[in-house]
Amino acid sequence: MFNFLIKRLLYAQLILWGVVSLIFFLFNILPGDPAKMMMGQRSDISTIESIRKELGLDRSKSLQYLKYLNDLSPISFHNNKKLDSYFYLDSEKYKAKELFNTSSNVVVVLKAPYLRRSYQSKKLVSEIIRETLPNTFILAMVSITFATFLGIFLGILAAIKKDGFFDRISLLFSSLGMSLPSFFAAIIIGWIFAFVLGDFTGLNLTGNLYEIDDFGEGYHIQLKNLILPALTLGIRPLAIVIQLSRNSMLDILSQDYIRTARAKGLTFRYIIWKHALKNSLNPVITAVSGWFASLMAGVVFIEYIFGWKGLGYVIVDSLNKYDFPVIMGCVLTISVIFIIINTSVDILYGILDPRIRLNSN
């Protein structure tokens, strides 16, 4: 078991390093100059060059990459003597604890990962993430909860009414839900329920969970702004849960112990609730655990379309402004969440089923 845990943690570290490398080089080969975006097109060349030097953009890509890894790593190497060193230990950036010195100038420190500052607002990227991550988490939780409970109910009902009208409709909805792109579904749902039927639904096309009142006296919770993005984000997992619940329930209902229970004279409703339902939920729980991580990564366009101020909204807004530290910090955060959830699920499977641990050796 110990070897299984170590392997999963090492795999997670390798995946995280790959994600960091990919997003760094991807966003550094994009056209555009962040220094010009900060100062505007009318700024002089000397000012732009000084900003590029201040941000470290005048260095080679390989040196910038090593510096970025050094900033992210909890254990990092710094030069505590030379003020002109690119790896100088800056007390304004890091609250670090010195571990030991490797030479007269290089010191190894323990610190929190440093995601740098926004090019536009000069705000710490970690603060931006702390402010917006709860909104994304709430949206993902509401979406997966809605998809899970409604999907199980509709899937079981479709299995009970097999080959009936409702079963055919549920299969059609599942096929459409799995094939419909999220951004397109967001546009269609927003147009129908917030524009065409807006007078009847009272829903807004854009809006956040917390809004300031007209007098600026404080924040008020607007739960109605959560309905449309949660509905849109939950369509695809809802379609999958319906399919899984239906197929799993049909498989359970064909088992011998179900036929034995019916032969004993037990009511069909009692058999469903007491015998079939619990056993049919295993594949659904497996799918839900994986889909929650996917939802955290799939909110980008949905949040931007509905004006929901979460990580996805910040990513798209930062792309328009070439604010690379914010983009990389948000994408890295979503990647870490995805890796943590999937690694935790792998470890949980290994604990529950020893065969998985044996197969991984």
Helix/strand class: mainly alpha
Please give the largest β-sheet: 3 strands, antiparallel
Computed CA radius of gyration, to the nearest angstrom = 26 Å
Strand content: 5-15%
Number of helices: 16
Query: How far is the N terminus from the C terminus?
Result: 10 Å
Shape: globular
Strand order of the largest sheet: 1-3-2
Order of helices and strands: HHHHEEEHHHHEEHHHHHHHH
Mean pLDDT: 79
Count of DSSP E strands? Answer: 5
Pick out the low-confidence regions. none
| Percent helix range | 55-70%
Describe what this molecule looks like in 3D.
There is one protein chain. The chain has 16 helices and five strands. The chain has 361 residues and is mainly alpha-helical. A three-stranded antiparallel beta sheet has the order 1-3-2. Strands 4-5 form a two-stranded antiparallel ribbon. α5 runs antiparallel to α6, α9 packs antiparallel against α12 and α14 packs antiparallel against α15. It is globular, with a radius of gyration of 26 Å.
Write the layout of secondary structure elements.
Blueprint lengths: L1 H27 L5 H6 L5 H11 L5 H12 L2 E5 L17 E5 L4 E5 L14 H36 L4 H15 L2 H15 L1 H4 L8 E3 L6 E3 L5 H27 L2 H8 L4 H13 L1 H16 L2 H7 L4 H11 L2 H29 L1 H7 L1
Antiparallel strand pairs: 1-3, 2-3, 4-5
Helix pairs in contact: 1-4, 1-15, 5-6, 5-9, 5-12, 5-15, 6-9, 7-9, 7-13, 9-11, 9-12, 12-15, 13-14, 14-15, 15-16
Observed structural traits:
361 residues, mainly alpha, three-stranded antiparallel sheet, 5 strands, globular
